[in-house]
Please model this.
Amino acid sequence: MASSHRPIPTRRTSTSSASGPTTAAAASGRDLYERFFGTVRAAGRDVVRCVTGPVNEGSIAFHRRLGFEIEAEVADYDGAGEARVLLRKRLS
Model:
């Protein structure tokens, strides 16, 4: 899924979550995201997007378990040789 575009968000919100190898860390990250999803819904939004590196298989797997879908893989997203995977979750 290669793409040459870099979407420009209308509103950027940064969040950090633990997505390490331990069950406790994954649960903590999941809890943080669930609270974030509630905040996003309350603000009238229905889509959440995030960005991770293609080599970060743990992060990709974590986000997929939360219901994120891979939207695109963008070469040079963060500069030359810095590809990123763009993920999207539709909130219901």
User: Anything to note?
Assistant: Residues 8-20 have pLDDT under 50 and may be disordered. Residues 23-42 form the longest helix (20 residues). The chain has one domain: 19-90.
